[in-house]
């Protein structure tokens, strides 16, 4: 999100500095250069200029701004600034912060919202301030598809965040299962995810790349981006995701929010902005998606995830989530986990396990998560051979770690790698892994990963 904050002094900067950076990129426009320099010294982005001159706003690319926040105490001055902004951009969303009930600007302006100053801190932290932006995005998404059939494409082994998001997209579009099916090139394998689609009556169809655009079907991707797939996808109409952007891709519309802990949070904001209260089934799916991707808001989450979770919680079926989280575990999975634990090695707080050949990829991240429960373990690095691919899953216990950067540095040149600070994954074709490292073994992975972890831990310790 791009915000323009127009203010007389640095009070708004100090109010927003601890929350704005987590949800938005804010440029502060202030009356003089010395004030702008002070804000810059404290880590903000700022520019000085006469707030009542049109030339000041000509130098700012307003078409890149999602929302302008005007915090000027004099009501007359605030009205003039709002007029200047509206003259420059007829479609700009404006929030006028006021100290009383009178406010500023034309009350008939549908893109102007007046917000009481005592409520500003709470409002900025909530999704309400983003409602106008999200409404615009919902309208854009709905305009992409018309009456065409829509395939909602998920990753190869869809997880709860992807499934909940896909269900929400279908609801936003006012569609049903036949006209907007959820599809994947793989299949759901993890026991909890299988329990989720069974208990919530969700169908995910397996298709081939050649079928994506059959009969003129449109294509939407949720919780995943086109570069994830090895096959070309053809025209992509929509991408909504919270993962970091790895490489450039083309899509008619994309909403990527890497500061969010779950894609389900984005879709919860869409639903709220559109005035659509989710059904119990949808709320349960979205809540479980946020819960699993953020480890119950302990990993990679921010205030937007907390707000979405709080909104969904009273609407969801918590008893059903408890049933989903305790599925029957196949005996072969227990045996694979037991063999892996017997080979566990601990080095500098890093547990490294190579599970060898396994049938189900989801066992690898399960093992990496389990490693973090072992005393003294701060990183879990688990690998395995799944058919002709080497899969490596990394987890850690803190927010300041660099799991995604490490995986990307080590393996992105020979496969697909990346993720977040506390969780990451690499998938590398077996032949390319052997070509670079000579063999697939615990020692090879340990020798590659541990020095990177130690170096980054030492760097973080010095900062």
Q: Care to describe what's here?
A:
The protein is of the alpha/beta class. It has 3 domains: 2-120, 3-Layer(aba) Sandwich (Rossmann fold), CATH 3.40.50; 138-325, inorganic pyrophosphatase (n-terminal core); 331-462, Diaminopimelate Epimerase, Chain A, domain 1. The protein has helices at residues 11-23, 33-41, 54-58, 75-88, 120-125, 131-143, 160-173, 191-199, 263-273, 280-293, 303-312, 318-325, 331-342, 363-371, 403-411, 430-437, 442-462, and strands at residues 2-7, 25-30, 45-48, 67-71, 93-98, 112-116, 150-153, 182-184, 204-206, 218-222, 238-241, 253-256, 345-347, 350-357, 379-386, 389-396, 416-419, 423-429. The chain is globular, with a radius of gyration of 24 Å. The mean pLDDT is 87.
> Rounded to an integer, what's the Rg over CA atoms?
24 Å
The description of the largest β-sheet is: 6 strands, parallel
Could you name the CATH topology of the largest domain?
A: inorganic pyrophosphatase (n-terminal core)
Flag low-confidence runs.
none
Pairing-aware structural class of the strands and helices?
A: alpha/beta
Number of helices: 17
Number of domains: 3
Distance between the termini: 28 Å
Biggest sheet, spatial arrangement of strands:
3-2-1-4-5-6
Mean pLDDT score, rounded? 87
Can you tell me the overall shape? globular
CATH class value of the largest domain = Alpha Beta
CATH architecture label of the largest domain: Alpha-Beta Complex
Share in helix: 25-40%
Full CATH superfamily name of the largest domain? inorganic pyrophosphatase (n-terminal core)
């Amino acid at each position: 999100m791009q915000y323009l904050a127009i203010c007389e002094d640095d009070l708004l900067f100090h109010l927003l500095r601890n929350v704005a950076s987590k949800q938005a990129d804010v440029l502060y426009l202030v009356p003089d250069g010395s004030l702008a320099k002070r804000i810059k010294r404290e880590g903000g982005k700022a520019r000085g200029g006469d707030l009542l001159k049109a030339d000041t706003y000509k130098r700012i690319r307003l078409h890149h701004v999602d929302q302008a926040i005007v915090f000027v105490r004099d009501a007359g001055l605030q009205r003039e600034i709002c007029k200047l902004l509206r003259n420059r951009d007829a479609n700009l969303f404006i929030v006028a912060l006021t100290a009383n009930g009178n406010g500023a600007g034309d009350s008939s302006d549908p893109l102007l919202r007046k917000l009481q100053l005592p409520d500003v801190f709470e409002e900025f932290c909530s999704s309400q301030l983003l409602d106008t932006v999200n409404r615009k995005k919902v309208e854009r998404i709905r305009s992409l598809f018309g009456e065409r059939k829509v395939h909602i494409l998920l990753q190869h082994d869809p997880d709860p965040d992807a499934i909940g998001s896909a269900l929400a997209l279908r609801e936003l579009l006012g569609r049903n299962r036949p006209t907007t099916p959820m599809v994947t090139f793989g299949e759901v394998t993890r026991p909890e995810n299988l329990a989720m689609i069974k208990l919530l009556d969700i169908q995910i169809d397996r298709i081939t790349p050649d079928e994506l655009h059959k009969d003129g079907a449109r294509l939407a991707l949720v919780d995943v981006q086109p570069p994830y797939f090895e096959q070309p996808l053809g025209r992509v109409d929509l991408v909504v995701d919270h993962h970091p952007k790895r490489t450039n891709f083309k899509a008619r519309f994309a909403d990527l929010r890497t500061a969010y802990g779950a894609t389900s949070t984005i879709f919860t904001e869409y639903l709220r902005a559109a005035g659509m209260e989710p059904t119990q089934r949808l709320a349960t799916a979205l809540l479980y998606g946020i819960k699993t991707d953020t480890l119950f808001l302990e990993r990679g989450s921010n205030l937007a995830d907390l707000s979405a979770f709080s909104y969904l919680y009273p609407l969801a079926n918590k008893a059903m989530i408890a049933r989903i989280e305790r599925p029957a575990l196949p005996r072969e999975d227990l045996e694979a986990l037991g063999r892996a634990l017997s080979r566990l090695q601990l080095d500098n707080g890093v547990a490294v396990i190579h599970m060898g050949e396994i049938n189900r990829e989801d066992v690898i991240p399960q093992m990496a998560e389990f490693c973090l429960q072992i005393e003294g373990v701060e990183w879990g690095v688990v690998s395995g051979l799944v058919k002709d691919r080497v899969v490596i899953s990394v987890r850690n216990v803190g927010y300041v770690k660099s799991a995604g950067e490490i995986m990307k540095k080590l393996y992105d040149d020979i496969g697909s790698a990346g993720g977040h600070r506390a969780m990451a994954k690499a998938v590398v074709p077996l032949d390319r892994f052997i070509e670079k490292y000579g063999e697939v073994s615990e020692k090879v992975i340990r020798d590659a990963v541990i020095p990177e972890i130690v170096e980054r831990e030492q760097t973080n310790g010095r900062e």
